[in-house]
Every structure is written in structure tokens, then in C-alpha cells.
From TrEMBL:
Residue stretches making up the MobA-like NTP transferase domain: 23-180
Name of this chain's protein: Nucleotidyltransferase family protein
Pfam families linked to this entry: NTP_transf_3
GO MF terms, alphabetically ordered: nucleotidyltransferase activity
CDD domains referenced in this protein's UniProt entry, alphabetically: GT_2_like_f
InterPro entries: MobA-like_NTP_Trfase, Nucleotide-diphossugar_trans
Signal peptide positions (record): none
Length: 213
């Protein structure tokens, strides 16, 4: 298990040393789409390539891509980018296993925080990611999440002290469970476009037509 140790309860100095790592989760089989959504065309590239370029442009390091149902195909899509790809062989068990695999990959960098994002939110921008990182560093909130509709969700950044709790997630539990459990302690960055994620053919058609927003 990754060696993430929570901050001491009596610590007074904020934990602001170390890099901010980024996990790009892409392990699913896209059953609702009927074909691999990571490989759908978008603005002259695939959704995965678009998300990967966005992740790199955020300035986070290391950037780790977690694959699962597909690996070699997704690996080809991030060729030439400073991204480490790891495969979650247990991807069918749910998102929690992908988060654990990703955290294991970034552990050697001893990140001060970890940002989690998905490949199916194509309207996420590098500016949004940088805003999440900056707000977490400035406020030292345990979590800063994107706010859309009535939801606080990913992309979201988790302070180092929260990483052991991410490792405790099980099965289908994702980062949203941890966000919900922290209530008012969670910082937020307003991101209305987060309402669009590309899970179905209808959502993909709305994205391409520009009718999503």
C-alpha cells in the first residue's frame, strides 16, 4: 500500500511542500456508450488525448493515466506526452481500485495533494484545474471540488492528509463519497459545464452539436 501518512493532529504549519499529482481515470468499459468513449473523436483528437493534454497543461506532476478495460489502445493515445500509464487489472471491481492503483503510482513523488479527473468531462480546462490547485494551496482546505448543479464532484483536489482515506474506498465508491462526507469543509470552484459528461450516445451528440450549453 502507498506510504501516505496523514498530518499530525497538532501540526500547525500547512503542508505546502511537494508537487501536486494528477490521476486521469480511464479504466471503464463504456457500457452505456456501446463503444470505448475514451477513443471518441473530439476537436481533431480523441476524448482521451484531449483530457491528457488538458491534464499536462495544468502543470501538475506527475500525471498518471489509469487504464483498465483497454490499455495498449489508450497508451497509444498519450504517446509523446509526459504521462505515466498504469493498468488496473481489477478495473471491473469499480473506481476505488483505479484510485488505489493511481495513488500507488504517484506515491514515490510524495505529492502534497492529488487532483482526480476523468476522461469523459471534455469541457474541463487547464484553467479550471489550476484554479482548483491554487484554491487548495491558498486555503489549505482538505478538498476543493468542482461545483455544478447540486453536485460537488470531480475534478477535485485532495490534500495529502486525505490520501489515506482515498485508499479506504471500496468497490464502486469514487472520490464523490469522500467529498460528500466532508460537508462544509470542502472548498468549491464553480464549473457549470461539469454537468456534461459523455456517458451515452445522446450526450456525445450534444457535445458535438454544441447544444450541451
Amino acid at each position: 500500500m502507498p506510504d501516505f501518512i496523514a498530518s499530525e493532529p497538532n501540526a500547525t504549519a500547512p503542508d505546502s511542500s511537494g508537487p501536486v499529482a494528477l490521476l486521469l481515470l480511464a479504466a471503464g468499459a463504456s457500457t452505456r456508450m456501446g463503444r470505448p468513449k475514451q477513443l471518441l473523436p473530439y476537436h481533431g483528437r480523441t476524448l482521451l488525448r484531449h483530457a491528457a493534454e488538458t491534464a499536462v497543461a495544468s502543470g501538475c506532476t506527475p500525471v498518471v493515466l489509469v487504464t483498465g478495460a483497454l490499455h495498449e489502445e489508450l497508451l497509444a493515445e498519450v504517446a509523446g506526452l509526459p504521462i505515466q500509464a498504469v493498468r488496473n487489472e481489477n478495473w471491473e471491481s469499480g473506481m476505488a481500485s483505479s484510485i488505489k492503483i493511481g495513488l500507488a503510482a504517484v506515491a514515490p513523488a510524495q505529492p502534497r495533494a492529488v487532483l482526480v479527473m476523468l476522461t469523459d468531462q471534455p469541457l474541463v480546462t487547464p484553467e479550471l484545474l489550476r484554479q482548483l490547485v491554487a484554491q487548495q494551496q491558498q486555503t489549505q482546505a482538505p478538498i476543493v471540488a468542482a461545483a455544478y448543479g447540486d453536485t460537488l464532484g470531480v475534478p477535485a483536489i485532495f490534500a495529502r492528509a486525505l490520501l489515506p482515506e482515498l485508499l479506504q474506498l471500496q468497490g464502486q465508491q469514487g472520490a464523490g463519497r469522500l467529498i460528500a462526507g466532508r460537508g462544509a469543509a470542502v472548498g468549491r470552484v464553480v464549473f457549470p459545464a461539469g454537468l456534461l459528461d459523455v456517458d451515452t450516445p445522446e450526450q456525445y451528440a450534444a457535445l458535438l452539436s454544441g447544444d450541451a450549453f
